Amino acid sequence: MRKLVLLIIFTCSSVYAQTVSTAKPWTYWWWMGSAVSERDITLQLQGFQKAGLGGVHIIPIYGVKGYEKEFLPFLSVEWLKMMGHTVREGKRLGIGVDMTTGTGWPFGGPNVTADMAAKTMSVKNGDIAVQPTGQKVKRAAPGGEGLVFDPFHKRAMAQYLIRFDSSFLQIKDRPRAMYMDSYEAYGANWTADFQEEFKKRRGYDFIARLNLFTDTTDRKESQLVKIDYHETLAELLRERYAHVWTDWSRQHGFKTRYQAHGSPGNLLDLYDEADIPETESFGSSRFPIPGLSIDPDYSVKQFGTPNPLGMKFASSAAHFSGKYLVSSETGTWLGNHFKVSLSQVKPQIDELFTAGINHIFYHGTTYSPASEVYPGWLFYASTHFGATSHFAEYFPLLNRYVENCQNILQNTRPDNDVLVYFPIHDLWATRTQFAGGIHSLGVHHVDEWLLGLPFGKLSEKLWRSGFSFDYVSESQLKRLSVDKSGNLDSGGSIYKTIIIPESVFMSEQTLKELTRLAKRGARVIFEERSPATVTGYVNHRAREEKFKAGINELKRIETVSVSADWKASLIANGAVEEELSERGLTFIRKRLDHKVMYFIANVGNTFTEGWLTISKGQNFEHYDPLTGKESALTHRKHRGKTEVYLSLLPGQSCFLKQVSENRADDSAVVSLKNAMELSGIWAVRFLNGRPALPADASTGTLKSWTEFSDAALYFSGKGLYTLKFNLSHEFVGKQGLSLDLGEVREIASVKINGVPLGVAWSIPFRLAIAPEVLKAGDNLLEIEVSNLSANYMRLRDTQAPEWKKFYDINMADITYGKFSAAKWEPMPSGLLGPVRLLYP
User: Fold this and answer.
1) What domains lie within the chain, and their CATH numbers?
2) What angle (nearest 5°) sits at the alpha carbon of residue 49, between those of residues 48 and 53?
3) What stretches of 371-420 show up as alpha helix (H) in DSSP?
4) Where would one find the signal peptide in this protein (predicted)?
5) 481 vs 206, 314, 397, 487, 765, CA distance in Å?
6) How far, in whole angstroms, is CA 515 from its chain's centroid?
7) DSSP 3-state helix, strand, coil percentages of the chain (rounded to 5)?
8) Residue by residue, what is the 3-state secondary structure of 461-505?
């Protein structure tokens, strides 16, 4: 494993012209008003390097009140000078640089004329009414204000990019990649030549069938017209928006990061346009991990929760096409500002890893001058990963964990058995409540478009049953070939079989491709039944007859099955059902040099330890990316199968790597079945923090330090807990001991008898104890605990709220209301325990 990691570090640092690491996490970096200076840019990049970040993503946004004279207009000579300085300093420090092709989001600005602006169509009294949406760039920076352009327009993207052509001619030091945020052109559903393009692509006049388009009875003719309308929009969006932007970027030497979600198109095709498809993790996933803090003010109804099935659209596009990286906007609105802990961040990242993401971008950090008083400049949307964050001192520990994981995830190939066809036509056939009457495929409320479809239901069952899978679109089917063993080869991945979820509609093109693949030996499964109706309104009756004949011909091919027992069919076709999922664990399976590797996360509360069957491979070693330690994994033969003994508590994660030989048999199982609570009088001394140090305290019962005194109610900082405890000789030199801290709010650095055990920053708050640390008789336990900054901000917002001095939205709370910490209840802080010594 050690040789593997060293090799991977070298590989990651030499992929791009910049000597940077993509294994390290990167961060969004908001330039407020672009009021930046070379000195502070360098200082902050040095801070990022020290924290263990690999790169930044520049996003110019609205400014700070009082700094107007320092605003730099976007793409001005002065702005480009600062960007060039950032890239040069990044190269010197090993920090990569990306930038948005614009300011704020979505694309638009001062060079967007009225004829280029986004348009919305509605049907009134049987006629089409078209008008501008009037939408302007959201959170625009100085020099970036203006209308959002029409994403379906024939020339809008090309004209928009001319501004960048002339600007980039002036500079030689350029970012690694261009970035496009999620589709948020609200209500845009029309373009000037839509009617002409519709007739050319669909074969009939859309206006002549308006009565069917607006029909609410869901009869077949109406559904067919709705499908045709959406398919036309989807094609225009890909050809005129995504493809033009990615093509322009590559011509200028940039890679592309693209958040395709939210679009009224097939996400698989749109993500596929980018070099680095990017998904988004917004809000808290509500993991049932015991002790996990979740901000109760977050509105699931308003914003939804992250879902790995939505994330898999980006990773599927990457896996299918063999793209090296797939990224994610990570940690957005995990909780209100000043309330997010590192222990909340880790499981969200683990969820992303199991969904196939391998290039983390924190959301995020804000450029803030070194001279600015606490808390400095902040972007309205949490989470704050910057230098003034309450977890800044321990941020490198999270980053080291992410780097350890991504070192492996970026340099192993996906090993997914199943391709799941995405029958988007069934979605397009339905009515929608989204703006403009179009289906916007967002990652926030996947329940509104994904989970209710048979496709979503099947994908959820596959996920919970332990099958490894990617999604595939109609257009991607064309790129599949079939090898001698009947496996499907996408050019980026190999799959055992393809499954078609229960669906009503299918295009002739999809039927043609499935027939081609099946005739060459590909294994195809229809869940429950085959589609009954061909898409396309024009000449539908005649085409339907041919389609039904073609479906019947396809089903007669030996490798094609129609099955209600899709699980049995998948297994018969070579797909593997991993026991890991049945036991409450999530995973992703990868390959390296013909050997399998698993990343496994326990984001539930049902598994702690036990024997598990690993379906692919026999001998495995265990790698803990949190500590960087590797060890043999105990195994045994049981009922004809090889099992491994895995200890993985809720909140923990690990890698299992297949090895040639494993000598650790079942006699090596070590389980911490015994516990001894360490109790007595705890002395508490406050070391540093705001607004002032509370008085020393002592307590026989561990509880939140907010209960110690009025001063402690508002304290944010670090407190030292000290306890003397007595041990018998049996613990001296004993192997396999651990210290369980119980509940920690929020980070604990631990020593026993002056020997550092480490820092506990994620659940479970446990640290190993080396045999030589404990002694017979009295022992001294010292635990430094750091809390959140929320309690201090309760006081700060009462006494001095002037730090909220930003334009546009200024500061918002987690429900997008006006931000104020003044009325918050005190957050639990310190060591809550119980503290226990665990031993075999």
Assistant:
1) 2-283+310-412 (3.20.20.80), 418-572 (3.40.50), 592-668 (2.60.40), 674-839 (2.60.120.260)
2) 65
3) 395-409
4) 1-17
5) 36, 22, 44, 8, 49
6) 36
7) 30, 25, 45
8) HHHHHCCCEEEECHHHHCCCEECCCCCEECCCCEECEEEECCCCE
Helix (H) or strand (E) holding 530: none
β-strands 777-786, 716-727: how paired? antiparallel
pLDDT tens digit sequence for 293-331: 999 999 998 999 999 999 999 999 999 999 999 999 999
Average pLDDT over residues 778-804: 97
- The 8-class DSSP code of residue 756 comes to E
**Beta-strand relationship, 505-506 and 533-534:** parallel
Kindly state the DSSP code that residue 81 receives in the 8-state scheme. H
**Cα dihedral: 185, 189, 192, 194 (round 10):** 140
SS (H, E, C) 217-272: CCCHHHHHHHHHHHHHHHHHHHHHHHHHHHHHHHHCCCEEEECCCCECCCHHHHHH
805: Cα within 13 Å, side-chain hemisphere = 16
Read off the tokens for 275.
Answer: 């070099």
CB-based burial label for 624 (10 Å; 0-12, 13-18, 19+): middle
Cβ contacts of 549 within 8 Å, gap of 6 or more: none
Instruction: Give the integer Cα–Cα distance in Å for 66 and 37.
Output: 16
Q: Does an H or E element contain 590, and which?
A: strand 586-592
Tokens of 482: 């079939």
Largest CA distance in the chain: 92
691: cis peptide before it, omega within 30°?
yes
Q: How confident is the model at residue 618 (pLDDT cuts 50, 70, 90)?
A: confident
Q: Could you tell me which of 295, 228, 349 has the C-alpha nearest to residue 653? A: 349
Helix/strand/coil for 572: helix
Mind giving me the DSSP string for 282-319?
ES------TT----TT--HHHH----HHHHHHHHHHHH
Shortest CA distance to 6 belongs to which of 662, 628, 659, 597?
628
| Cα distance between residue 41 and residue 24, in whole Å | 20
SS3 622: strand
Residue 512's SS3 state is: helix
Cis before 383 (ω within 30): yes
Residue 556: count of CB within 10 angstroms of its CB: 9
Q: Is there a contact between 503 and 423 (Cβ–Cβ < 8 Å)?
A: yes
Cα–Cα distances in angstroms (integers) from residue 801 to residues 370, 375, 805, in the given order: 20, 11, 9
pLDDT tens digits, 190-215 = 999 999 999 999 999 999 999 999 99
* Type of residue numbered 205: D
Q: H or E element: which one contains 36?
A: none
Q: Closest Cα to residue 79, out of 41, 24, 26, 124?
A: 41
Q: The tokens 């906007």 sit on which residue?
A: 329
What's the one-letter identity of residue 141?
A: A
Residue 621 burial (CB count, 10 A) = 16
How many Cβ atoms are within 10 Å of 201's Cβ, its own excluded?
12
Residue 310: partners with Cβ closer than 8 Å, 6 or more residues away: 261, 279, 443, 446, 450
pLDDT in tens, 261-291: 999 999 999 999 999 999 999 999 999 999 9
Tell me what pLDDT residue 433 has: 82
Residue 732 has, within 13 A of its CA and on its CB side, a CA count of 9
3-state secondary structure of 397: helix
- Beta-carbon count within 10 A of 646 CB: 23
Q: Structure tokens of 811? A: 């500061």
d(CA 696, CA 708): 9
Cis status of the peptide bond prior to 132, with omega within 30 of 0: no
